[in-house]
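User: Can you help me understand a structure? I only have the sequence.
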Amino acid sequence: DICAKLALDTPQNAEFVVAKETVDVYVTNEPQQAFHKRITFCLDVHNEAVKAMRYPPGAYKKDLESAEERLEREKQEEELAKEIEDELDDGI
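Assistant: Let's start by predicting it. Here is the structure, written out as tokens:
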């Protein structure tokens, strides 16, 4: 059909003409809109999940150490470091 209308010699030539006429979908905004729709859906699901999370107030505080406990721990670590350093100095 196309060969006769365009007066082309071979069907291969007509195939290239038809291939050029096919509109590339990426020239349009459709892929961008579909991608945007997917991203919006994922962000909505994430935001709803974050809103659905419920934490009791102050629940994280029980794992935190007080200032006195922290100072005591740091003193013990310093003493231990000094003892190790003294042992290394005595060994050399």
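Now, to help you interpret it: The chain has four helices and no strands. The chain has a mean pLDDT of 82. Let me know which part you'd like to focus on.
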